[in-house]
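pinned: reference chain
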Amino acid sequence: MRELLDKIETRQHLVRETAERLREQITLLTEQLAAAEGTLKRLETTRETILELAAKDGTSPPESLPPGYREILAAFEKADGALHAKDVCQALGTGTEPCHVEGRCHVDAGVIV
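pinned: its structure tokens
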């Protein structure tokens, strides 16, 4: 009987540890969700403000950005902090050689030099 009670106690301890880890994960995910929702709200407010100002000025709303620009902005939005040119190149899947990062590439007979 004592052996069975010891097994139950060991199992309870393991389940308590698992429950605590899950609570910590839930807390972290809740914080991340709140931050993401806050960012979405700020972006929507900014968009609405721009459209209202454009309407008051009689100007047309800003046009959508070309795909390349949208991808660059998305890389910055996903980043936790500042990005260097090399980070942006990695996010976009382009080369990270100095000529790509420093903008000094030129094409010679179809080959980047």
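why pinned: Residues 2-57 form the longest helix (56 residues). The two ends are 78 Å apart (CA to CA).
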